[in-house]
Amino acid sequence: MMSERLDSKTLQNAKVRLPAFDRTELRPGIVHIGLGAFFRAHGVIYNDDAIETDPATHDGWGIIGVSLRSPSQRDRLEPQDGLYTTIERSASGDRPRIMGSLLQSIVAPEVPERLIGILADSGIRIVTITVTEKGYCHDPATGRLNPAHPDIVHDVEHRERPVSLPGFLVAALKLRRDRGIAPFTIVSCDNLPSNGKLLRGLVCDFAALSDDSLAAWIESNAPFPSTMVDRIVPAATDNDLLLARDLTGLRDLAPVIHEPFRQWVIEDIFGAAGRPAWERAGAQFVGDVEPFELMKLRMLNGTHSALAYLGFLSGIQTISQTVADPVFRDFLAGLWRNEIIPTVPAPDGTDLAAYADQLLERYSNPAISHRTAQIAMDGSQKLPQRILGTVRDRLKAGQPWERLALIIAAFITYAGGTDEKGQAIDVKDPLANQLKADGQASPATHVRHVISIGSIFGADLGRDERFIKTVEAAYRTLLTHGAHAAVSATNQT
Ligand code: CS2
Known about the structure:
Number of helices: 21
Bound molecules: D-mannonic acid
Strand order of the largest sheet: 5-2-1-6-9
Helix content: 40-55%
Structural class: alpha/beta
Low-confidence stretches: none
C-alpha cells in the first residue's frame, strides 16, 4: 500500500521522535540562506533542540529557509509543511527524528522583492548562511569581493532584484536602516576562514560600491559572528528516501542523513535582539572562534579533500572505502602528524592527536556513504583555506610538505578532466574551464598554468619556484605511477 506523505496532518502518525513543541505557536525570527542538506542536518537540529528545552521562551525562533538558486528543496519541503526526517547513521544503527522549526521555504529568484521584505521585517533578528564557498562571490586567495563576478556585476545594476548573497543582505540592510530598524545578526556557517569577518568585508565592500554611508552603518552596527560548523552530511540518495519511509511509515521526499558527531562553535557577539539558547543544544559560545576554524579547516576539510582527489583517482567511491585501505590510512596518519598538526595552534583544551583519531573514526563510519566525487567539487574555492595555508606555513618553517604537494597535484590532475583509465571526469568547479588540461601541453606547462591562477594560489605561490617545482614533481609521479602507487611511495618519505 502507498504510504501517506509527511505533512502537518500526518505528522502524528509517524513512528519516530516528533518535535516536542507546538509548531503553530512558532513565529519566524531566523532567515536561513542556502537550504541544503547540511543546514537541515545541523543548524535546524540545534534550533529544534534549543526550542524543546523551553518552548515558551523560544516561540520567536522559527526559521524561513531560502534557496538562492534551485527550487528543488522548496518543491520537496513545502508540500510537507517544512517537515522532514533526519536520520543519524552509525554502525550501531539508525536514529530517525522529524524536525519542526523550519516553517517555510522560498526560492529567491522567484520572489526577490518579497525576500528583501521578509529580511527587512523587524521580527527577523538572525540570518544564518550556508551557501558553500562559491556563494560568497569573493576571491578565495585574498578574501575580498570579486567585483567582476557575474552575480556582483548583475547586482550592481539591479539592486532591488539581486541574485547574490551580498546583494540580498545589502538590499535588506538598507531598508532596515531607512526604516530605523536595527540590523539582524549575520551568521556565516560555511567552511571559510574567519567566516564572519570575511562576510562583513564582502557586504561592506558591496554596499560601498553605491553608498559609503550604508557601508559605514553596517560596519558599525551589524554583528557578524564567526563560526565553526562540523557534521558529515552526504548528499541523500533514492535509497535514503526508502529508508525514511521504512523508519517513519510516511513518505518523505526531503530526508537528510548524517553522522552522530556534531559541533558548532560560535563567536558570542549577537545583537541586542538576542538569539536562541543554542548552547543548551551543545553549541559552544566562545570569544575567539579562529583557532577552532583553523583546526577544522586544516585537519578535517584538508584531509577530506586529500582523500577525495587521491581516492577518486585511485578508483575509490567513498571516504569510508578510502580509509579502509591501509595505504591511505598510513598517508593520513603521516599527513596529520608530520605536515598539518605542526601548523595548527591547539584551541583551548583540545588534544590535536586525539582530534585526528576521532576524525579517522568518523571517516570510517561504514553507514555513511560520503562520495569522493561530492567532496572533490569546487576545489578552486576550497584549496586555499584547506591546503595552501598549511603549505605556506611549512615553506616558512623550511619543513617538508611532500604529502601536501601530492594533494595539490591530485587536484590538478582531477580538475584536468581525465581519470587514470582515460575516461572523462565530470568536474564541477566554477573555474572548470581554466583548470581543464589541454592534451597538447607538457606536464610542466600545465602545472605552471594552473598555479598561475591567482584566485587560487595567490601572487606569492604563483611565483615561488620551489613551490612550483615540488608540485610539478608530484604531478609527474601521479601521471607515471597512478594515484595509489604515488600515495604508497609518499608514505616512505
Ligand atoms: C566536505 C565538507 O564536501 C566537503 O567539501 O569536506 O562538507 C565536510 O563534510 C564538512 O565540512 C564536515 O563538517
